[in-house]
Design goal:
- InterPro entries: PemK-like, Plasmid_toxin/cell-grow_inhib.
- The chain has a single domain, classed as SH3 type barrels (Roll).
- By secondary structure, the protein is α+β, with helices and mostly antiparallel strands.
- Helix content is about 25%, strand content about 35%.
- It contains two helices and seven strands; from the N terminus they run αβββββββα.
Length: about 130
């Protein structure tokens, strides 16, 4: 089954690359991103579009970003950052899974993070890197 998921993701990734478009996105927005089928403990996307919510931490090169994947499953510890999005939903950022994403992977916007929470998330991310 897992091998089939990799094959489906490779087909989907080709479509994203050649037919995908760049949405207008900003720092602090939460998007459903097409993260794909990944290896071992790397966070993956779910469903037919391999989607996972991410928070845009920093826009890079105009059409790309540094993003942190999110979960709604409660997590605690140095590798996680908890906050409520602007819709009031509890979110847990998976700090150790931070990654560079091309904007074509961003499917549609889900919500936003409060400006002060974004600053605290960035501080937590920097602290993890310096650890």
């Amino acid at each position: 089954m897992e091998g089939a998921q990799f094959d489906r993701w490779n087909d989907k990734k080709k479509v994203i690359n050649f037919e995908g478009s760049y949405p207008h996105f900003l720092q602090g927005q939460i998007w459903w991103a097409q993260l794909g089928q990944n290896i071992a403990t790397e966070v993956t996307g779910k469903g037919k579009d391999f989607l996972r919510p991410v928070v845009v931490v920093q826009r890079v090169y105009g059409n790309a970003c540094l993003a942190v994947p999110l979960t709604t499953i409660q997590r605690r510890g140095d590798y996680y950052f908890s906050f409520n999005d602007l819709k009031g939903s509890a979110q847990y950022a998976l700090l150790a899974q931070v990654r560079y994403l091309d904007g074509k992977r961003l499917k549609y916007q889900r919500s936003d993070i409060k400006k002060d929470d974004l600053g605290r998330l960035q501080d937590a991310l920097c602290a993890l890197i310096k650890k």
